[in-house]
Amino acid sequence: MKKFTVLLSLAVLGACSSDEKASTSASDAKTITFNDFESVAGWNVDPALLDRGRAHSGKYAIKVDKDREFSLTFDMALGQATPTKIKTVHLEAYAFLPSDKATGMLGVQVMDDTNTQQLFGDGIRLGEAVKSYGKWVPVSKDITLPENITAAQHLRLSLWRADASDYVLIDDVKLSIKE
C-alpha cells in the first residue's frame, strides 16, 4: 500500500498508513486510506493530536477536544486515489464519545485544485450516530460525491470538534470507493 505524505498546516495534517496493519486488515483495490494511527507516532506530528492509551486497537487514536478543533487530516488528490472517477465513498471508523456533550463530525471534503476552498462536505455526525457512551462504537456512512469532481481536486478526511464540549476519539478509519 502506498505511503502517504504527512502534510503540516494550521488545521490540516496528513496521516500515514501503516503498511503492516493495512496489508492484513484493510488492503484492497478500493481502499483509499486506512489508518489505525499507530504509524504517525514519532513522525513530527503534534503529540497533542493523538490520544495514547484509549485506542480501539493499538495504542493511539486521533482526538479533538475543547482545545483542538481539528484532528490529523488525510489529504490526497482524487487522481492519486484512483484513475477512474469516484461516485460514492464508504467511510467507516470506531468512535468513542464519553458523554452526550461529545458530538463532533468525522468529515469528508472535496477541495478545489489549489486545495484552499471547500467544494463539498459531508460526514458522520457522531452525536447522532453514537448513542452508547464510554465505549467504542462502529460508525459508517456512504457519501455520494458531486458529479463535477476532477482528478486535480483534493479529497480530505478529518475529525472536527464542531460543537463538542467533551473530547471525541476516532480510531481504525477506513475510506474506500463504493462506486
Automatic annotation (TrEMBL):
Matching PROSITE patterns? PROKAR_LIPOPROTEIN
Q: What's the protein name?
A: CBM11 domain-containing protein
Species of provenance = Hymenobacter luteus
Q: What is the lineage of its organism?
A: Bacteria, Pseudomonadati, Bacteroidota, Cytophagia, Cytophagales
